[in-house]
From TrEMBL:
It comes from Pandion haliaetus (Osprey). Coiled coil: none annotated. It comes from the Eukaryota. One of its GO terms (biological process) is positive regulation of epidermal growth factor receptor signaling pathway. InterPro entries: SHKBP1/KCTD3, WD40_repeat_dom_sf. SUPFAM superfamilies: WD40 repeat-like. This is SHKB1 protein.
Length: 132
C-alpha cells in the first residue's frame, strides 16, 4: 500500500499467493538504472533460504524478476542503492544487482551486524573486523 494524502491508503501491488510464510520483506521505492528504467519500485520477500523479487510499475502491475536461493536461512533482507542484499549470521551474503541483473553469493566470516552508508554495505563480523 501507499499513502495518498487526499484519499488515504491505496493498494499498489498484490503478489501471487505464496506457498510459504513470508518472514522478511524489503522495499525499494526508486532504483536508478534498474530493470524497468529509472523509476522502478521493487519489493522482495524471503522465507527460510528462498527470496522472490518483483519489479513494480507505475500502473500497479508487477513482474517477477527472479527467485533466488541463499542456501542458508535469510536473516536480513534490504536494499542498498540498486542492490538487493540478503544476509545470514553464518557468513553468507547474497546480492542481486539491478544493473547487471545477476545474483551472486559470497562467503564471509560470520556476520553479527550490518549497516549501509550511501551505496556501501558495512558488515560487523565476529572476528572483530568491519568489512565493506
Amino acid at each position: 500500500p501507499r499513502m495518498k494524502e487526499t484519499s488515504g491508503w491505496q493498494q499498489v501491488f498484490s503478489s501471487p499467493r505464496l506457498d510459504w510464510v513470508i518472514e522478511r520483506v524489503a522495499l525499494n521505492a526508486k532504483v536508478l538504472g534498474g530493470a524497468l528504467g529509472d523509476h522502478d519500485k521493487m519489493v522482495a520477500v524471503a522465507s527460510c533460504s528462498e527470496i522472490i523479487l518483483w519489479a513494480l510499475q507505475a500502473d500497479g502491475n508487477g513482474s517477477e524478476i527472479g527467485v533466488f536461493h541463499l542456501g542458508v536461512p535469510v536473516e536480513a533482507l534490504f536494499f542498498v542503492g540498486n542492490q538487493l542484499i540478503a544476509t545470514s549470521h553464518t557468513g553468507k551474503i547474497g546480492v542481486w544487482n539491478a544493473v547487471t541483473k545477476h545474483w551472486q553469493i559470497q562467503d564471509v566470516v560470520p556476520i553479527n551486524s550490518y549497516d549501509a552508508a550511501g551505496t556501501f554495505l558495512l558488515l560487523g563480523c565476529n572476528n572483530g573486523s568491519i568489512y565493506y
